[in-house]
Amino acid sequence: MSPQNSDLHGSAPDKSPVALLLIDVVNDLDFPEGEQLFEFALPAAKRIAELKQRCQAARIPVVYVNDNFGRWQSNFTTHVEHCLQDDVLGKPIVELLAPDDDDYYVLKPKHSGFYSTTLDLLLRHLHTKTVVVAGVAGDICVLFTAGDAYLRDLRVVVPADCVASNSQEENDAALKLMAKILKADVRPSTELDLEKLLND
């Protein structure tokens, strides 16, 4: 069944075999381990910002997959404004990675971006076969989202320089697990050939 209106998203790509998923990057880091995570998340955010620019140039859609932080009346735009305007630890990261008007977003209640969200439906609409997963934390929400993508027969790419956890050891262990179990491509973002991904 074809949709009545095939162009629902303005200038954003309506079909793409590849999508960039940004996990929990709009984050005030207001939790006990926030400062520990920030140390690793800020360098990763710089790499993610560069990757996002490359994806936009290649017409690869960007999907913000963000925690609702236990607030069932969450509003993504309000949370972005909070992270940009208030004096919060995560502000430098959100300044680097603030969403653009044509980006997509999905609010998630739990660790996986697929659990009780519209992400699966959105990726089907986009005809996506490969997801590039970046963000925080590598050993929790990135891992769970990548695992659920793999269970849906999506090809998984997790650039090693675009994910961060509370420690380098935890992050490395998660990347190793994703490479082994999920067959994820974990090469650094600078080595990713986006055109090849689009045409594979």
Structure characteristics:
Rossmann fold, 6-stranded parallel β-sheet, 14% strand, 200 residues, alpha/beta, disordered N terminus, 40% helix, 7 helices
Name of the CATH class = Alpha Beta
Q: Whole-Å distance between the termini? A: 26 Å
| Dominant shape | globular
- The SSE order reads EHEHHEHEHEEHH
Radius of gyration from CA coordinates: 16 Å
What does it look like?
With 200 residues, the protein is of the alpha/beta class. The protein has a single domain, classed as Isochorismatase-like (Rossmann fold), CATH 3.40.50.850. The protein has 7 helices and 6 strands; from the N terminus they run E-H-E-H-H-E-H-E-H-E-E-H-H. It has helices at residues 34-57, 76-85, 91-97, 119-126, 141-151, 168-181, 194-199; strands at 18-23, 62-67, 104-108, 130-136, 155-157, 163-164. Strands 1, 2, 3, 4, 5 and 6 form a 6-stranded parallel sheet that branches. Strand 4, helix 5 and strand 5 form a beta-alpha-beta unit. Helix 2 packs across helix 3. It is globular. The two termini are 26 Å apart.
